[in-house]
Write a structure and sequence with these properties.
mainly alpha; 2 strands
Length: 1523
């Protein structure tokens, strides 16, 4: 065979052999073990290489597909496992340079022309070479080849369209960059490295980095991998630039170039010809030819920021600040904005401005963060070279203002932080362009503007030059300008910043500022106001500023120096006399036409009036030395003529004119007038005689004016939002501001409003509440106020119910809206309906007060009203209810019901309680039209009955039972539901229907519970309820044993729920209470009757094949309640005949109970996913277990139930979470079973548990069997066993612990770790250790727990898994410490090993990660708290652990020095280790200082110093006060 194949090399070289055959032969020769050629691998690779070289050198003509297949052949060889094994075994394979050159040529061709011929195979070959170290040496040995390859690869990526990028290209770039970085690090000639990077790699590298940063190829199809690869390549490019352009060896060259230093005495050598490296870099950077014009600006801008960062990273250190600055102007000069002239305002597009301003921001932040600019050093040593550059930047920014761009504001903010003098010459222009004249609308830009203004005020406050700043602000405001185009200067952001600054200023500066404002107002604005709209707008701006200053200054108080008080008083008098009164005097329009200037002057005058009145009142209250012009606020007896005026010195007649004038438009003036009236009310209330009739009349008039002022505006719907600043109140935002004023001061206003005004407020409140989807609208970026938010806030306020008149009016308003919708669905004459349902027509909230009296009179004088109302409702429900609601009406009424649900319905006064009960009951029994969907109808009925339930639990529930019997309500509700249920075409187990049944059952149960609690004619009501249920159509069907025609199964379920709830209430009541001789017998008879009825209905429902049969829902709970009632009668005390009947009843239902029992055992696993059904099933099984007369004679009930529970636990279809949820319910059943069961039953359980814990189950991958056995064991441990049963369990304990150890070891060896086994094992182990404190006698079995703890891995777990495993490990360790101290003493090293694993894992999880999310931090903190607690428990065992305390500290510091922890995690761990340091004596501390490694020793020193400073000092301080 060898002879046959030995001629292959000749055939490959033969010209007669076709290329198709040659490729087949070459492929066969490579893969065949029977082909023997000397140095076969090298021969075949050389043949393919020579063929390709000959083709590309035009010496050989080949078809395109043959060339492609040759490249693929080489690629297959390079990526083959065979070649990798040969290289690993030391065989040498030589790649010729010719192959590498043609690879480089093909990639260069691809980068230039974009031709993709064979490019995928070429890139794969290149990847194969670079990813194999033995082959990559051909590139790494010849640096020029690697540089050329890297340059071509980068250009290839940069010049490819987004969709046409080749998948392997970036992986090859990543590999090539890795190799080049290695070469660069080994390079001893810095000149060559610099030349390679600047000549070949700088431009393509910067373009590629820019494109990757912009996410150009982020959608290339590999998702997260692509992002990681992109980030890695960007990092490699940065490392390449830093290693080539900014090498440490080039520092002297940069100094020569940038600092003009002649290094004549330094060694030159290889560096002597390398001049101006920065010029070389910048020349290459700004060269226009290397990328598209559209990209050039952004590439240069982003590169400028990068190059400056890399320069600082390489060369910044103390003493190099000037050098690092000198780079800045050169880099800044590369940006387009640096060449703009003042007149070139539109030379750049917005996107270019944004890009370049972001770069300028980064440059300035680098200067600030690295302390490159030292003001004193720059002025003294360097002739302010830096200052002049920053001034040039500042002038550029201010001359070309870009207010829509957030970065523009941030650049100015950084310049102010560097030195306020940089911007001071242009302070007025800065204030104009960045604040007063700026048009800022976007949220992020507003935040940037706010930060700039904050820095500005903060800086001038530190300099104590705030008045100087305000002088500039006033100068800008008073400049000639188109005032109408200016935005309000004190919107939310600037106003908040100004407030924060003013609070910190001394009063002297505030008064200086106020005086400045007054002077400017008087001299520049006031004389020119008349008929000048621009001046009027300036007056409003100045008024807003003065308002903001005065409202946010610190108040005068008793500690204020007297000169300041007197100066303040003079300022206030001057303001009133020289500013406020002259402005008010202008408000006397000659004709009916209102000009704009007059409106703005009125806004300004009234804003200043309100400001003056409010501040004057504040000063008067807080400072006894301040004497107000308006007189004392308190302690004066009121005469009718001495009522407080709105403002001193202004006649009442003039105020009337102003009010009339202001009422004509919605503006700031009207809002301020309302504030003045509110201030007047407060001044009146502070008088000693405010209860006089005159004062009360004045208060009522003032309150009426405030409410009436904006009445017309609140009736119009508006969606405007307001930022809660007075200066931004306008015609659009006035309704919001007005409503906010009223709601904020309701506690003052409400007592003085007439009933009509109260009703009006209630209607506005209801109308402006967010309804339906509006409540879930998107959250605004800015927290502005709207009508809806204000109304929602008052509805949710705890003060709302306390404002009784408004609360009552709102209740009646809400009831009236619901009633009007109900009446709109009337199908009869409204007069007749008003007689039958009078509560729907009660419009006045005062009438409701008479309800209680109207229905309270019971006796021979008239008809008993309880019967009258109930009979009316019942007759309407039985016949044809006169109101029918369609879908649209139902949706509207549901919105109001949602509002109703937010009210405290259980806390209503009796008349409102009655009204709402009747209203909700009327809704619940209303007929629903065909247009209403089943889901909407169910939601409506559920809401009604839930609200009726709230009322039923209310404090005034007795008032309802004064007008209606409980039995009548019961009958009305069920009659209505029986009729309505036929319209619900739902499945029996539809979740919505089951929820509805639950709501109805709860309502009926609570209704009957109230009947018992209040002892309201028990026999009479229960007899009527039982009789009604007996007469229902569904019951008649059950009694006859036949299914009647047209019977709906929902009705049958409703009847079943009603009957079972009746049994559920009556049974326990009869068992607990002993009534009179007559009552118990009657009620017992009624219970017996109810039980029989329930049994009959259940028998019908459970007929096999009946459509009503629905085991997993209503039937189970109903059967459980019936069985409970049956057993209650059977076990209760009573007459002999009753007992006999009861026994007979129990046995008569035996077939039913046994059938349900069998069905539940069969379906129990299926029920596990339905919590309610599963609970009911387990309750039934518990009750069935306690009734031995029902047990089947053939099988053991204990065994059947136990195996059914095992099936549930072993079912793989049931999720782990569901198993955990149902475990408590299974535990209750299990406890009862073991209480009654025999020792043999327990032995069966133990046998099954031990079988499940056998490690062979893990080997057979039967994890569910293991988990079910562990769960059973946990249930068993939770059962209170005693005597022989307990001893049986603990005798098996050694076997159990050993089995758990083996199971845990197997589970931890799996990859990934089988936490479904590990976690339950740890839970059970902790329970065993806790409960076996007395029972586990052999210490070896306790010490096995340590092997389990040390086996569980804590690394490579996901955060959620770690958060689940850690507490369980801690729990086991704590159980050993607390319950088995003797064992722990003998195994302290094992204990500490286990504990240290926990500590170190917390350090690992709590370390600060690079750009990592802190979402997992709460979980780590929880684990750190457990560690701290364990440290405290260890410290409490001082005697045992004293010897080990220095070793614990040593291990702690050795581990903590490896990571940087989050401060919160570090704090908790330190608090723990401080407790261990308490155990260390002085020799221990000396030992640690001597024995620890140098780095660790520093950490210990810092830790010990903190311990002495914070912990020990505090501890000893506490000891001083301890007896």
């Amino acid at each position: 065979m060898a002879a046959v194949y030995s001629g292959i090399s000749l055939k490959l070289k033969s010209k007669t052999t076709s290329w198709e055959d040659k490729l087949k032969l070459a492929h066969f020769a490579w893969i065949s073990h029977q082909c023997f050629l000397p140095n076969k691998e090298q021969v075949l690779l050389d043949w393919a290489r020579q063929s390709l070289v000959a083709f590309y050198k035009k010496k050989l003509e080949l078809k395109e597909d043959i060339v492609e297949r040759l490249w693929i052949y080489i690629d297959n060889i390079l990526h083959s496992r065979k070649l990798q094994n040969l290289l690993k075994n030391g065989k040498t394979i030589n790649l010729q340079i010719s192959l590498v050159k043609i690879i480089n040529e093909r990639i260069a061709e691809f980068s230039l022309s974009g031709s993709q011929r064979n490019i995928c195979a070429v890139l794969r070959c290149c990847q194969g070479i670079l990813s194999t170290p033995a082959l990559a040496v051909i590139y790494t040995a010849k640096q020029e080849l690697m540089v050329a390859l890297l340059s071509h690869l980068c250009w290839s990526a940069c010049r490819q369209p987004e969709g046409a990028v080749v998948a392997q290209l970036f992986e090859v770039i990543h590999l090539a960059l890795g190799h080049y970085l290695f070469i660069q690090q080994q390079q001893v000639n810095p000149r060559r490295a610099f030349g390679d990077v600047t000549a070949h790699l700088l431009q393509p590298g910067l373009v590629l980095r820019h494109l990757l940063s912009g996410g150009t190829w982020s959608q290339a199809g590999q998702g997260q991998l692509r992002q990681v690869l992109s980030r890695d390549i960007r990092s490699q490019i940065e490392a390449m630039l830093q290693g080539g352009v900014f090498q440490p060896e080039l520092l002297s060259s940069y100094k020569e170039e940038l600092l003009d230093q002649q290094q004549g005495d330094t060694k030159t050598g290889a560096m002597k010809n390398l001049l101006a490296p920065m010029d070389t870099v910048l020349t290459r950077l700004v060269d226009a030819g290397y990328c598209a014009t559209s990209l050039h600006t952004s590439v240069v801008a982003n590169s400028v920021a990068l190059l400056y960062k890399l320069f600082l990273d390489s060369y910044f250190k103390e003493g190099n600040q000037l050098l690092c600055f000198q780079v800045l102007p050169r880099l800044f000069g590369c940006l387009k904005i640096s060449h703009l002239q003042e007149e070139q305002r539109k030379a750049l597009s917005t996107s270019d401005w944004t890009t370049e301003l972001l770069v300028v921001e980064q440059l300035l932040n680098s200067v600030a963060n690295n302390n490159i600019y030292n003001i004193a050093a720059d002025r003294i040593r360097h002739e302010e070279i830096q200052f002049h550059f920053y001034r040039r930047v500042a002038e550029l920014l201010i001359n070309h203002a870009q207010a829509p761009i957030p970065a523009w504001f941030r650049c100015l903010k950084t310049l102010i932080s560097l030195n306020h003098l940089i911007l001071e010459p242009d302070l007025d222009d800065l204030l104009a362009s960045a604040w007063i004249d700026a048009e800022v609308t976007e949220f992020r830009t507003k935040k940037a503007q706010e930060a700039l203004i904050h820095t500005l005020f903060q800086t001038y406050a530190k300099l104590r030059q705030v008045p100087r700043l305000f002088e500039e602000v006033l100068g800008v405001i008073c400049r000639p300008a188109a005032e109408a185009l200016r935005q309000p200067m004190l919107a939310s952001g600037p106003s908040t910043v100004l407030c924060a600054c003013l609070l910190e200023l001394p009063l002297s500066q505030i008064l200086d500022t106020c005086s400045l404002v007054l002077e400017k107002f008087q001299s520049l604005v006031l004389p020119y106001l008349e008929s000048d709209a621009d001046m009027a707008l300036k007056s409003l701006s100045l008024s807003s500023l003065l308002h903001c200053i005065m409202f946010n200054m610190r108040s005068l108080d008793s500690s204020t120096p007297l000169p300041i008080v007197r100066r303040t008083q003079c300022m206030m008098e001057r303001m009133l006399r020289e500013l406020v009164q002259p402005l008010l005097a202008l408000l006397d329009p000659p004709g009916p036409e209102l000009e704009l200037w007059l409106q703005k002057v009125s806004d300004s005058a009234l804003l200043l009036s309100y400001t003056w009145a409010q501040v004057d009142a504040m000063f008067s209250l807080n400072c006894s030395q301040y004497h107000s012009v308006s007189g004392a606020l308190t302690g004066v007896a009121l005469e009718i003529l001495d009522l407080p005026s709105l403002l001193p010195g202004v006649e009442t007649q003039h105020w009337k004119k102003i009010e009339k004038f202001t009422a004509q438009f919605n503006s700031l003036g009207r809002y301020c007038l309302e504030q003045l009236y509110l201030q007047k009310m407060k001044r009146t209330l502070m008088q000693t005689s405010f209860r006089s009739e005159e004062a009360l009349q004045s208060l009522r008039c003032d309150a009426a004016f405030i409410i009436g002022s904006g009445r017309k505006n609140l009736n119009q719907r508006t969606t405007a939002s307001w930022d809660s600043q007075v200066g931004t109140v306008s015609g659009l935002t006035y309704p919001v501001a007005h409503w906010h004023l009223i709601v904020s001061n309701l506690t003052i206003l409400i007592s003085y409003l007439c009933p009509d005004d109260v009703r009006y407020l209630a209607s506005v409140l209801l109308r402006t509440l967010p309804m339906g989807r509006a409540q879930d609208g998107s959250i605004d970026e800015e927290p502005y106020i709207t009508l809806q938010k204000i109304s929602r806030a008052i509805l949710n306020s705890p003060l709302f119910p306390e404002m009784q008149s408004l609360h009552s009016a709102f209740l009646m308003c809400l009831a009236a809206r619901c009633s009007s919708i109900l009446c709109s669905g009337a199908q009869r004459d409204s007069g007749l309906i008003s007689q039958q349902l009078p509560w729907l027509f009660e419009k006045d909230h005062m009438i409701v007060a008479h309800w209680e009296n109207r229905f309270a009179k019971v006796g021979p004088e008239g008809i008993e009203p309880r019967g009258e109302i109930a009979q009316n409702l019942l007759s309407l429900v039985k016949s044809d209810f006169p109101i029918q609601l369609e879908e649209e009406q139902l949706e509207s009424i549901l919105e109001f019901l949602e509002v109703m649900s937010t009210l405290q319905l259980d806390n209503l006064l009796p008349p409102y309680h009655v009204h709402y009960f009747l209203l909700l009951l009327s809704m619940a029994v209303t007929k629903l039209g065909c247009s209403c969907s089943s889901s909407l109808a169910l939601k409506f009925l559920m809401t009604c009955y839930q609200l009726l339930g709230y009322l039923q639990r209310g404090k005034s529930v007795r008032s309802v039972f004064k007008i209606m019997y409980v039995s009548d309500i019961f009958e009305i509700v069920l009659t209505s539901l029986f009729r309505a249920s036929s319209r619900f075409p739902l499945e029996m187990d539809d979740p919505a229907w089951l929820e509805f049944l639950q709501v109805i059952g709860t309502f009926l149960e609570e209704l009957m519970q109230m009947l018992i609690q209040m002892k309201l004619s028990l026999v009479l009501n229960f007899r009527k309820i039982t009789a009604f249920l007996s007469s229902s159509k569904a019951h008649m069907e059950a009694a006859s044993g036949k299914q009647l025609e047209n019977q709906n199964h929902q009705g049958r379920q409703l009847l079943l729920v009603s009957l079972t709830r009746l049994c559920h209430i009556l049974g326990p009541f009869l068992k607990e209470q002993k009534l009179s001789q007559e009552a118990p017998a009657a009620l017992a008879e009624l219970l017996q009757q109810a039980v029989l009825q329930t049994g009959a209905v259940l028998q019908l429902c459970s007929v096999p094949g009946a459509r009503g049969w629905c085991l997993p829902s209503v039937l189970i709970s109903s059967v459980s309640m019936l069985l409970e009632a049956d057993l209650g009668q059977h076990c209760g005390e009573g007459e002999a005949n009753i007992s006999q009947v009861t026994d007979g009843t129990l046995l008569s239902h035996a077939a039913l109970y046994q059938g349900v029992y069998s069905q539940i055992l069969l379906e129990l696993p299926a029920l596990a996913g339905h919590d309610q059904s599963f609970q009911a099933a387990l309750q039934f099984l518990t009750l069935f277990f306690l009734a031995p007369e029902l047990h089947p004679k053939k099988d053991s009930v204990f065994t059947s139930m136990f195996h059914s529970v095992r099936r549930v636990l072993a079912d793989p279809e049931i999720p782990v979470q569901v198993t955990q949820d149902i475990e408590p319910h299974l535990g209750a059943l299990f406890t009862r079973m073991l209480e009654v069961g025999t020792i043999e039953d327990l032995r069966l359980v133990m046998q099954c548990v031990l079988q499940g814990l056998d490690v062979s189950n893990m080997w057979e991958a039967d994890v569910q069997a293991v988990v079910s056995a562990v769960t059973l064991l946990r249930l068993l441990l939770n059962c209170p066993l005693s005597g022989e049963k307990a001893s049986l369990l603990w005798r098996a304990c050694p076997q159990i612990v050993t089995a758990l150890t083996l199971l845990n070891r197997e589970a931890c060896q799996e990859q990934p770790v089988s936490l479904t086994v590990v976690e339950p094992v740890l839970d059970v182990l902790a329970a065993l250790l806790r409960q076996g404190e007395e029972a586990i006698s052999n210490p070896h079995h306790v010490s096995l727990a340590f092997s389990i703890l040390l086996t569980v891995p804590l690394d490579h777990l996901k955060p959620l898994e770690y958060g689940s495993v850690f507490p369980r490990l801690h729990n086991v360790l704590f159980s050993i410490l607390q319950c088995h101290p003797k064992v722990m003493l003998k195994a302290i090293p094992s204990f500490l090993n286990s504990f240290n694993r926990l500590v170190f894992s917390v350090m690992r999880e709590g370390r600060q990660k690079d750009k990592g999310s802190t979402d997992d931090l709460p979980m780590v903190l929880k684990c750190a708290r457990l560690v701290e607690r364990m440290y405290s428990h260890i410290a409490a065992q001082a005697e045992e652990f004293t010897v080990f305390s220095p070793f614990m500290v040593a291990q702690y510091v050795s581990e903590v020095q490896k990571v940087t922890l989050y401060p919160a995690v570090k704090s908790l761990l330190q608090e723990g280790i401080y407790l261990i340091l308490d155990l260390c004596i002085e020799p221990d501390v000396q030992f640690l200082r001597a024995s620890l490694q140098p780095g660790v020793r520093d950490i210990f020193k810092e830790l010990y110093n903190d311990y002495l400073k914070y912990h020990k000092a505090k501890h000893e301080g506490e000891k001083r006060y301890t007896a």
